[in-house]
Specification:
Layout (H helix, E strand, L loop, with lengths): L10 E2 L10 E2 H15 L10 H16 L30 H10 L6 H17 L2
Parallel strand pairs: 1-2
Protein name: Pyruvate carboxyltransferase domain-containing protein
GO cellular component, one term: chloroplast
GO molecular function: 2-isopropylmalate synthase activity
C-alpha cells in the first residue's frame, strides 16, 4: 500500500498461480468494473471488458485448431482424462467452430447452411438451460 492505495495486484493468467491464492485476471477486472465506483472509490482499469468475450472465443478457436497454442501443460499430464480430443464443453457462449468440431467428433458432418441452422437452434436451446 502506498498512501492507502494499491500499487499492484498479483493475478493468474490461464490458471497459473491459483494455488498461491491469486485471483484470475478477468475476475479482478470484472470486480473492479462492477464494484469499483461504490466500493473502491472510483477505481477503474481502463480495460474494455467486451474484449474478454472476444478473446475467450479466439482462444477457444485457437485450441480447436491446435491445443498446444494455449495449453502448454496438457490435461493428461495432471491426470485429467478428456471426454473428447479437445475437452471443450458446449454452452450458450460457444461459437460455430466449437459446435462444428463437436458434431464431427460425434460423427456428423454438416454443410455450412445446415451448420448455421443448427448453430442458432443450439444457441436458442443452450440459452434456456442451466
Amino acid at each position: 500500500m502506498d498512501g492507502g492505495r494499491v500499487r499492484q495486484v498479483d493475478v493468474t493468467i490461464n490458471g497459473i498461480g491459483e494455488r498461491a491464492g491469486n485471483a484470475s485476471l478477468e475476475e479482478i477486472v470484472m470486480a473492479i468494473k462492477c464494484r469499483g465506483e461504490e466500493v473502491l472509490g472510483g477505481v477503474y482499469t481502463g480495460i474494455n471488458t467486451k474484449h474478454i468475450f472476444t478473446t475467450s472465443n479466439m482462444i477457444c478457436d485457437g485450441i480447436l485448431k491446435n491445443k498446444g497454442t494455449y495449453e502448454f501443460i496438457s490435461a493428461e499430464d495432471v491426470g485429467f482424462i478428456r471426454a473428447s480430443e479437445h475437452g471443450i464443453r458446449l454452452g450458450k457462449l460457444s461459437g460455430r467452430h466449437a459446435l462444428k468440431i463437436k458434431m464431427l467428433e460425434l460423427g456428423y458432418n454438416f454443410e455450412e447452411k445446415q451448420l448455421e441452422d443448427l448453430f442458432w437452434r443450439f444457441k436458442s436451446m443452450a440459452g434456456r438451460k442451466k
